[in-house]
Amino acid sequence: MPPLPPIVKEIVVNVFCSAVLAPILAVVIFAACWWGTMPSSSAPKPTAEVVPHNQNQTGSPPGETASRRSSIRPVSGRTLFLANCASCHGADGSGQGELVLDRPARSFKDGGFSFGNTIASIERVITSGIPGTPMPGFKATLDPRERRAVARYVQDLGPPQVKVNPDDTIMSVTDRPQVIRGELTPLVAGQPSHVRGLIAGNTDGLSWEYRTDDVRLLAVRQGDFVKRENWTGRSGEPVRPLGRMVRIVGSGDPGPSFLLNGKPVGSRLLGTSIKNDHVSIRQQLVGTNIRIAETGLSATVGTMAGYERMFQIDNPDQQKLDMPLHLESAPELIGTDQNGILWYRSSGPGDLVELTGLQGATLVDSSDDSIASLENGPKASVRIITLLAPEWTPQLQQALLGTEVSA
Amino acid sequence: MLSLLLSLSSLLVVAEESDYYVVETIPSPDGEVIEVGGMDMLPDGSLALSTRRGRVWIVENPTAENPADAVWHLFADGLAEGLGLKVIDGEIHVIQRTELSRLRDEDGDRRVDHIDTLTQDWGLTNNYHEYAFGLPVDDEGNLYVSLNLAFVNPEWWHGQSDQPWRGWVMRISPDGEVTPFASGFRSPCGVGRNAEGEIFVTDNQGDWMPVCPIFHVQEGRFYGHPKSLRWRDDWLSTGEIPTDTQPVAEPRQPAAIWIPYDWSRSTGNLVADETGGRFGPFDEQLFVAELTNGMVLRADLEKINGEYQGAIWPFRKGVGSVCRVRFAEDGTLFTGLTNRGWGGMEPAHGLRRIRWTGVEPMEMSSVDLLEDGFEIEFTRPIADELELTADNFKARTYRYNWWWEYGSPEQDRQPLEVAEVTISDDRKSLIVRTPSLEAGRCVRMGLTNVRSEEGHDLLHPEFSYTVNQLPGQTGPAPMIARRVAPPLERGAGVLDGWVRLTWGDPLDRVNGEGWTLGAAELDAEGRFVTKPGNGLLMNDPAVSRDMLLPTGGINGRLQFSTFLPSGGAVGLGLPSGASVVLQDHGTDPPAATIRVMDSDDSIIGEWPVDFWFGPGQWQVLSFDYEQPRFDEQGRQLDQGRIAGIYLEDGAIAEAVQIPMNTGDVGSGVMSFLGDVGPGGISNIRFHATNRSLPGGGINLIADQAMAASKRTGELQEMRPDGRLALSGAGTLEWGVQLPESFTIAARLRYKTGTMAQLDLGNGLAIHLGHDEVGEPSTGSLPDLDEVTTHLMAAGAWFNLEATVDWNGSRTSMEVMLNGVPLSAGSLEVPDGQWEAGARPMIQMQSGELEFAELRIIDRP
After folding, report:
1. Count of A–B CB contacts within 8 Å?
2. What fold characterizes domain B364-483?
3. Which of A90, B201, B487, B817 has a CB 3.0–4.6 Å from the CB of B492, allowing a cystine?
4. Which residues on adjacent β-strands are paired with residue A227?
């Protein structure tokens, strides 16, 4: 293995915590370190989760707003609230509705909720109602999307849960993924910065750093999200990621993400989407009709932790696509697990062992770079899983090939 | 006296902007700093706004009677700035520094789910100044975006286009295809459209932008800043890159409006009033955001010979750093505040709204250009009893320089004669005939004593009209922003004719006993802090003496920057003993008055200061002073006159006569009063009205005189256009012999780092040039009167007049720079040692020195 640049050594030390000193199974410790900085459920809500100011809020009359509903795109939580909830809870959520009930309706303005104030719990109440009270369930009248919208709206009616310090530039991921766009500083000294970049942070604590002038994954991190210094002063500062480095891709300055018919091809950013609690990066290969959505997931196999890049590929012309994997040594096939994932072993950063799982792709024999050949059906789904382990053991192999990989 | 003033003031009916338009704050979410970069209305009547900090908020209920009833929802976070926002078919589009995006909320929970990147196809470096602004849409669905130039240190004032399309307005089709649309922009902060759907862009004053313009943007045209041209095909094909300082020969599209500097220093976006009269009587006119002066302006455009041009007025002051304006359907004008780290009026961020009270103001509703004047329409009929004549109108015309200098002062100001005024039968319009009006000039016209039938004073009595063309004109008109020779150094062009009395070494040429030199800073209570610095001369009324200036009986403009503590004041003493006091009221919002008092402290006049920014803000005051006048019999008519008092370029008072009285006799010079204050001043300058040099004499730079001169050392000599340019080190001695008493008349300039002297024999010499502060500077007389203030700006042409007298035992010399006597001295010459027939000589150590004139005039 070539000598590591200093930053990679530091990463390995970070990821690895104090595993060398630990007297117990390194694999277990690795997993423990990996998740060690996840925010605990009791941690205060971070600052970026701004709950709006809503004192003395009044709504317009329900009828008037409801009559406009057809022109509103998309359906807003407020409109639904006014149409379905305001008669009892009041247009302003104060509990002072037009209907007089023997048991007063809940005031949302105080922030009190019968079964918890998370979106999920409010949604449950909206769906099923509260037995023994006038609160009905809305399962039949509102679809899940509308119930979610009402739940968000009702939650927002409560008092601000977090004070935002205007000088506070920390942006955090809590119950919902975040994406930040802006300039990224070089990952390795001497490399260029990327004036167009983004970092996607998922609720699993992993964040994904891309350049977006030509979409390329640069790094995967774990831990806190970002310090957004980009607007400080008169603007123009880079975004500073806060997570610990898990993996730098292609020594921090990888080439194009995809090969088309064996040749590098550029990738244009189409956008980012938040779906199912993950961010996907949508892109289109330059000069083609190939559209790709990449979603970064965390992955665990037994006690081993890692990450997965999942690609949904629209390839109407079924063109041949390959993808450099940026492995640090020639991979060796270990076997196929029960899900049909092909597992390869190579040297990872530092002294770690890197395990690569491929689904919807196979490894092309290549002397100096590891290239995965992707399925080229019109709608392909490709998974590339990366696990890092301190050492390769028979127990690890057993765990890998005998256990289902859960994402 | 006081009772007289009170009774006078009770007769005046002063119209206030707030009688007609109220400003209200929509409270921001707790702790949130809302720096608005873009705003538009959503179909449900909510306001969507994007911020410089990369967030998008939806403000529900923004027109609620009680502004605190508005509810904020955080819709999106993590954008790379959002300096323009447009709602198209209910979907929010935001221009970010890095991309144009569509933000979609799929599940209706008021949080963005998808950010679609429509395009990233323009160049970007990591320079902070490469903002991207927007975002109007045309009838075909194309979006318009403007791209700032970079400001690269150290010479940040030269805007740079280091990546494609910086300095351009771009058109982006609905499917994201980017077309470079027009070039020549510098810092085009506001992009909008008028009621006809045409695209307009504002820019910000600086290099190649003399003041802030409103441009009608048309495809393929060039608007004045040369740097952007390098990306145009014809320039790309030659590979040539426009320089920082040389004007280009491209045809320029003139501004539809050049906004006077005292009205706008940083212009934001503009929006047409299409609310059908719900915002008052200005249907389809443009409302323009202005952040430094913290207000909204109103513009009325018309097409003359097929091109837009028109009039502009202040509309509503005291709003805050208005960067964005947007109308709601009900006629509410939302104002989004941001000063993005620049100085801008407080409040510097947040959301406010302007609502019409329903009372129609007395305003000029429109100004239309005629071949020989203007037709002015009013919102209400002019009072029946008013007889308006030409005396009620005061107008001037001016133009600007188009150069790399940071902005341009008004150039070639000329009074515009009003020949005739006609009122229409319905008394709602006037025709003002100004037969000498020419194309290629801006007009600034003020109306006095105009009020409506119901007694409303004309709320904004001054307008500015940009006359690019006259109706019916054939052939091209000169550009208002005229191409001029590039200044040699920064500041040189605008300092032509000035003497800088406190530059570099502030207390050398003025007497400032008891004044403190320090940093311009206030503490939380608005008092001066005492920190070392070189920025501000502060007085303490208890101990400071009057600061005497060397500008006694000279007509001219005294100008200085002022920085007051809360409730502070600065007093200017006139030669007669009368005084002018600027007093901050220590109030919120800030207010100040200017008072002119006679030597016995009786009040000659008192005026409110419009556009007063308040304590802790730098503002420039100018006083035009004229000496006492005498009638034909030689009787003194007055003790002088203040022809004008101006804040920035805006008049506070004009033609104030200092009456004859029996009070104390003044100092005979101008001074800053030690016992009025506390106040802070800096950058005191004087611009004498008469700076002309005496004529005649021997021309030392004529070919004949030069032919008889001797050079030594490494002195280089050049003769550009017949001038004499010297550089390097060495001497130049002329063959001409100096008479006993004579005057030197010179017009010259030099570059920073020039050290030279003009030797005049018998131990007399004048230092020319300057380098480090503390070393001798221009006007210094070696061994007689050392000048260390940098009175002259490097690069600026100036006049030097030195008179030398020999009376048989003493030789004496006095030096005037730009008409102001600044140094003098005399020397006892022992018997028999005075040398007749000395020859003038230049000794140069370093730098570059250039004479346009150098003459010796004998005074027998």
Report:
1. 181
2. Immunoglobulin-like (2.60.40)
3. B487
4. A170, A240
